[in-house]
């Protein structure tokens, strides 16, 4: 199976966090060590759609892939420059929530054979759903990288006060939909210092998560909810709004909470966490159910289904690892 991944989200020196989840999925696919899978990737900067189309026309002229799979709605258009039996597209949120992007993305749907969304909630917002079939294909969390670490050591390495209250806002404060204003209000109400990730190198993010007493995600909308899963893989308490996969991920995990944003109610939940220094949640097993490896297997199985390709022995081995998704 010859597959080309096309994405406008990919880490760069200027924006090291951009699209790290797409890179993690690509690595997870390669680590499946499936002899039938030949995987390539074409990454380009956000906004460079015309140049990307020209580049792919030149680079892949005369070649035909079994699958060309694009990440992010607008990326579908340049990906169509490459010949394939199946053209796939995974929607991630902004491509549906932003009015102009939604219109351009929707116009590409007639040319897409495999349409997917990063979460069931996002799938329901896709124009034409449920008449239009939408697969659920998130990238998943890199549970090999996001692991519990010693909080005291993490704080020392990040030059943070060992005795301070810290809350982590796991996003760039300049992204309006992530609602940094809400995070600041809650941190102030709890007399806690607020940490942010912004342009932190992805390799350092596990330290910042483990250094925090809790991770807070007060977003208006999430296409998926990766930050919550990363915290859960590190067994750090989470308070998050019910969007994306937050409810499915957090539900039933003691010490973590999924509820509509309200400064007072969120502060009360966080005080419960602060009252238990060094608190760790029993959430890693749940995070593993959303792992990059499991989601890569799900994606590979979906490609095979659309190609009507019989499972070979390696694929059968992977199928044994694949369990029912948490949202199924």
Give a written overview of the molecule.
The model is unreliable at about 310-315 (pLDDT under 50). This protein is an alpha/beta fold and about 325 residues long. Strand 3, helix 3 and strand 4 (about 85-90) form a beta-alpha-beta unit. Helix 1 packs across helix 14 (about 290-305) and helix 8 crosses helix 12 (about 265-275). The protein has a 6-stranded parallel sheet. It has a 5-stranded parallel sheet with strand order 8-7-9-10-11, sandwiched between helices. It is elongated and about 60 Å long. The protein contains 15 helices and 11 strands. The protein folds into 2 domains: about 1-140 and about 290-320, Rossmann fold, CATH 3.40.50.2000; about 150-290, 3-Layer(aba) Sandwich (Rossmann fold).
Question: Could you write a compact summary of the structure shown?
Answer:
The protein is an alpha/beta fold and 328 residues long. The chain contains 15 helices and 11 strands. Helix 1 links the parallel strand 1 (2-7) and strand 2 (38-43).
């Amino acid at each position: 199976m010859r597959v080309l991944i096309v994405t406008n989200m990919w880490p760069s020196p200027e924006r090291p966090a951009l699209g790290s989840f797409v890179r993690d999925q690509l690595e997870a696919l390669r680590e499946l060590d499936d002899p039938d899978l030949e995987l390539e990737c074409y990454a380009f900067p956000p906004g460079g759609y015309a140049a990307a189309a020209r580049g792919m026309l030149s680079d892949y002229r005369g070649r035909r892939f079994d699958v060309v799979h694009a990440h992010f709605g607008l990326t579908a258009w340049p990906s169509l420059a490459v010949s394939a039996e199946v053209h796939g597209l995974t929607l991630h949120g902004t491509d549906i929530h932003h009015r102009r992007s939604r219109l351009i993305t929707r116009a590409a749907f007639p040319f897409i054979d495999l349409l997917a969304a990063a979460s069931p909630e996002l799938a329901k917002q896709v124009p034409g759903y449920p008449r239009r079939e939408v697969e659920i294909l998130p990238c998943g969390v890199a549970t090999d990288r996001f692991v519990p670490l010693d909080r005291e050591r993490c704080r020392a390495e990040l030059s943070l006060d060992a005795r301070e209250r810290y809350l982590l806002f796991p996003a760039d404060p300049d992204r309006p939909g992530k609602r940094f204003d809400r995070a600041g209000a809650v941190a102030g109400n709890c007399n806690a210092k607020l940490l942010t990730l912004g342009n932190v190198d992805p390799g350092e993010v596990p330290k910042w998560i483990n250094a925090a007493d809790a991770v807070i995600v007060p977003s208006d909308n999430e296409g998926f909810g990766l930050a919550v899963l990363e915290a859960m893989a590190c067994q750090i308490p989470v308070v998050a709004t019910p969007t994306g996969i937050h409810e499915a991920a957090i539900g039933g995990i003691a010490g973590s909470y999924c509820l509509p944003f309200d400064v007072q109610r969120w502060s009360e939940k966080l005080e419960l966490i602060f009252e238990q220094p060094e608190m760790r949640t029993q959430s890693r097993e749940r995070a593993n159910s959303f792992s990059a490896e499991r989601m890569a297997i799900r994606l590979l199985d979906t490609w095979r289904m659309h190609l009507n390709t019989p499972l070979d022995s390696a694929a059968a081995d992977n199928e044994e690892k694949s369990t029912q998704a948490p949202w199924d």
